[in-house]
Amino acid sequence: xxxxxxxxxxxxxxxxxxxxxxxxxxxxxxxxxxxxxxxxxxxxxxxxxxxxxxxxxxxxxxxxxxxxxxxxxxxxxxxxxxxxxxxxxxxxxxxxxxxxxxxxxxxxxxxxxxxxxxxxxxxxxxxxxxxxxxxxxxxxxxxxxxxxxxxxxxxxxxxxxxxxxxxxxxxxx
Length: 173
Fold this sequence. Notes:
By secondary structure, this protein is an alpha+beta fold. The protein has helices spanning 11-25, 32-37, 44-53, 101-115, 130-138, 167-170; strands at residues 2-5, 57-63, 66-75, 85-92, 120-126, 142-152, 155-165. It is built from 6 helices and 7 strands, in the order βαααβββαβαββα. The longest helix has 15 residues, at 11-25. It starts with a strand and ends with a helix.
């Protein structure tokens, strides 16, 4: 499997992966009508903007010319965590979940952020998404009590901030 930076020509396929992932992973959590209407090209504009801005890194997993997943990561988007790194999103084709693709993408992003000196990384995960929460916990992330909310079609969903820290990030100065 090849991990590489995303190119503009990948954006439609990445958006298709995200849409398929949402429809599978968030069934029963996100309003079904929203998932049913979610177009495959929904994320193309935001992905294009992220590539143009160059702030966030988009890395794809490719096997035999087919994209299987993508991770987007970089500096925190939140002012109160401005010295942190953030995993903005990670999605894998439903047919490849549990086959190590997500692991490779997450490990790649974490290694890249550590190489530039990032000692603390966070991500948001839906409270109900037990599969994803277990995945992140296996990779050293933990829930430290900070919660958020998002609203999708009038439904309020709880999110947990999961945190990863290098051992020196917790030591007193």
